[in-house]
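cron nightly-structures :: item 1 of 1
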Amino acid sequence: MDENKNPESRYDVDEEEGATTVLRAMDAEADAEEEGATTVLRADDRVVADDDNAEGATTVLTGPDPAMMGAAPAPGVPQFEDKTQMIPPMGQMPNGPMGAPMGQMPNGPMGAPMGQMPNGPMGTPMGQMPNGPMGAPMGQMPNGSMGAPMGQMPNGPMGAPMGQMPNGPMGAPMGMMPNNGQMPPMNGGKPPKAPKPPKAPKEKKAKAPKQPKVNKDGTPKKKKTGLIVTICVIAVLALGAGAYFLFFTPEKRYERKMDTAENAMTDSSYEEAVTAYEAALGIFSDRVPAMNGLLAAQIGSGESDAARENFAEFRTTITGFDADKVTENLEDIVAFYEYADDLYSDTDSLIDAYKEGYDLTNDSGLKKNLVAAYVDRADAMDNSDYENKIAAYGDALDLDSTNESALSGRKECAYAVLDDMMNTQQYDQAESFINTYADSMSDVDFSSYTEKIESERALMTARHDLMEQVISLMSASDYAGMMDVDGSENASTVVANMDGTSYIYATDGYDSSYTGKGAGVYTYSSLLSSGYYFYYGDYENGVRSGQGSLFVKMDGYNQAYLVYEGAWSNDKPNGAGTETSVNEDAGDELVTVTRSGNLVDGLFDGDVTVSLVSNDEEHAGTYTGTFTASNGDAPDIRENYPDLDFSDVSDGATVYVILECEGSPMYWHFSKGSAAKLGIYTFDY
């Protein structure tokens, strides 16, 4: 006997190179109990196969069939206890021991096919056994006559285990009895022909089993083939279960929701997309692509308010990301903050969002958006709030020092503020402005304003001194004293620096709505001359109205000065008034001429009285006369004085008044050109 064989053992197959090892009979039961394992062992050591394709696998142990060999098993040949039923495919049943397919069993000892057992000795079909001798159903057998449970039958009457019947009288196992030709079928049919005896299998030389592997101490290694098979089966089942559950993992569900949302966006089905994106965020609330998709879908569907609410909520989530997560989602985070332009119209909200996004990502695109928002904010501010306006431009330039919009906007603001301060004579404020921003605004020409402030301060001094003199002299009707004022350096400086045709001054401060006493200097241009004159009197809402006087120094025709005193309205002589001119002729004679009457916008209209006072010894006296004017015009009166000599009157001139001295043959006459108007000087043009 081979020393590796044991009558109490059976064959198993080694995992390595098909080696055959010997397992003790007690191991067989342990192996068979492994759940889900199928093991096929052949005693001839040719094939070992594991099948995990069927759920709840069946273990089949096969060995040489004693019936096929025509003899009882030899002593020492391994016996196999089949704890399961061999269930081959129904359509492919192998031949049974009687030479017929297993699925088509030959007639049994009762004359009926083995698969269709006739009624047994108890009057019931063989497949439905009545209660056994102990009163229990055959399928649930109590302990048998041998004291062993019926499900675990002891050795039968032939000395073999009940589950492994010895060969019957025909040399075949009792459990597979052929038709012996003596027992007719129970159904009365013809007895079947005797089957041909099976051919004896060819004898094959048994291969010498491989020597079992041993441990370091020389003891044989035990193989746990059944356990390995079980593990393999479990692994396969786990893979299948894993594939099933993988389909329903949060990640896979998220991906399917995103696919649905993106397809809906492609079809412009925004409401469907909103639902799908919200479902995706319900699975993973921190996924930025889903946030962006939801915002785009809500904007597309016109749900701007809802989008703004979500945008604010998502910002809280995103700002809570750590640095690694921001880096992983950088592109999507940048795209998220760019939605601010679609959600907000006010620059403050845009700046807040873009600044947060830029601080988080340091993205150049968000930086550019932030710079533009700062510029827009500054552009919208009024120059009166110049500090905040310049600061907003500064915020933009801190991010982009070469930004042309910010540079030009800040420069324009600085010039506008300085010009306004200069125009309102706020020179101290202008100087403070320059000192504050000179270093940070190198592109602004502050030096020109510094020079202008110096000249304006000099001008202010000149204006103040000049106009205070005018008020003092003219309020006292000291017109002779005004001769020193008119033509002075201060007067020339003030006139040269006038903004427009006048400069008005009031001791208590003047503005465009000023009402009260004041003094002014005005330029004029007449047909024969041009220059400036002074006014002192009443103002109403910045316009000459009420009573006032005019003073002008005359250089031509030996006139020293001219004064008008009377009514004013609408910034012109209107109403009753008197014009007085003081002349100095070549002989140093002082001649004073007055014209009194009604005036309309500076022109005589109606009866006018004229008086001339001469201090010349030869022509001394007072000469008077009258004329009637209509809007500055008067008729020629020479025909009323045929005895007078008018040979000195130029051609085309009109003699409009004759002045006579009582008790003297001498007279004076005044004439004017055809284009001239009779009115207050500087208004008779």
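cron nightly-structures :: done
Residues 106 and 417 are 121 Å apart (CA to CA).
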